[in-house]
Design brief:
Length: 74
């Protein structure tokens, strides 16, 4: 499992797919999600705008990613 750190409260699924390099464009992300090729927390997800938060897992194309957050500075 690969870990991807985000610096915000959440990231949209389509943006996350681009960040991981699984797709190159938003159009490719949309197609992958709508075709049911992406799983979020073990279940197929067809909502490309789904908000992913630290702790969520995304699987696609034989790879699995864990969303990790950066703790805020005190």
């Amino acid at each position: 499992m690969e870990t991807i750190e985000i610096h915000t409260e959440y990231i949209r699924l389509d943006a996350f797919l681009k960040l991981t390099g699984l797709v190159d464009t938003g159009g490719q992300a949309k197609e992958a999600v709508l075709q049911g090729q992406v799983q979020v927390n073990g279940a197929p997800c067809t909502m490309r705008g789904k908000k992913l938060r630290p702790g969520d897992q995304v699987s696609a194309a034989g790879r699995t990613f864990q969303v990790a957050g950066i703790p805020p500075c005190l």
